[in-house]
Amino acid sequence: MGNVTSSVAARLAFFPPEPATYEVAAAEGGAGLRMTGVLPDANVDVHALPTRAGTRVVAAFWRYPTARLTLLYSHGNAADLGQMLGLFMELRSHLRVNIMCYDYSGYGASTGKPSEYNTYYDIEAVYDCLKKEYGIGQEDLILYGQSVGSGPTLHLASRLDKLRGVVLHSGILSGIRVLYPVKVTLWFDIFKVSLGYTPFHFGSEMAVVYSSNHHLTANVCRTSTK
């Protein structure tokens, strides 16, 4: 039954831009990869990472020269990396952190099809890259999930107990609750993460995600800390 709910969620949740807003090609001189249509930046590394599902996801690591912390950003459901680059450059500049961003399977130049479980495998591959390529431990890592990106963000957070922090931006409880303000907890709901101190900031007139999503998320977190 879990596969049924996941397939329904995929139809409701994932809308990759078509066509993709960028492509990946070999960098000049054949050393590494680059994103087409993006100005060259000596502080950006582009990767095509294999996942457990057999797909390859595109990820980009944006270095800030004196950064101690790294932000792993999981974007929303209707954008790809090409549309998000301006935001990543702003975040890197203003927060003075490294930014690791990636496209889900089936988004941008990543292969495969988007699905709930593929997003889990995608973020696992990206985290492995951070550890192996850049030596970044979870103590210096902040996970940031926007909209549907809250799913893979919390999946990874449930496996790491020493993270510097987790940020959910317009986080969702489920694909169904985005369409309808369902306030009851259904039998197939899954709660993976128990949190300590958890501040919540949200408005009562949210236009994209019903505010009931945030109220219930806050209530679940309060319950988990009792």
TrEMBL record:
<dbReference type="InterPro" id="IPR000073">
    <property type="entry name" value="AB_hydrolase_1"/>
</dbReference>
<protein>
    <recommendedName>
        <fullName>AB hydrolase-1 domain-containing protein</fullName>
    </recommendedName>
</protein>
<dbReference type="InterPro" id="IPR029058">
    <property type="entry name" value="AB_hydrolase_fold"/>
</dbReference>
<feature type="domain" description="AB hydrolase-1">
    <location>
        <begin position="71"/>
        <end position="171"/>
    </location>
</feature>
<dbReference type="Pfam" id="PF00561">
    <property type="entry name" value="Abhydrolase_1"/>
</dbReference>
